[in-house]
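User: Working on a comparison across species. This one is Early nodulin from Miscanthus lutarioriparius. Can you predict its structure so I can line it up against the others?
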Amino acid sequence: MSTVSRASLDQKLALAKRCSREATLAGVKAAAVATIASAIPTLESVRMLPWAKANINPTGQALIISTVAGMAYFIAADKKILSLARRHSFEEAPEHLRNTSFQGTGRPHPAFFRP
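Assistant: Here's the predicted structure for Early nodulin from Miscanthus lutarioriparius:
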């Protein structure tokens, strides 16, 4: 059974806190952009389109805008967490696993298979 040192655990905890802080910041930025990007067309369509004026009340408008902002937050934060986890797992991998280049037949991959 292997023992884990206190310094190693503290280092991993600090890394996790930094990663979650970066993901939160990325999510907030995406939510702010998404709020502006969804609020303008939503509010303008309620003013200009008769159907929207008759069917979308202020609560509906707020729901549309906040749903878009929430989705953008979670999507951006999740993407950031996954990219940081991928980067850190690659950095901690043994040397023989880091070389992921494939030396195959020399044929180029189709565009959708490229790494």
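For your comparison, note: The first helix runs from residue 6 to 48.

User: Helpful, thanks.
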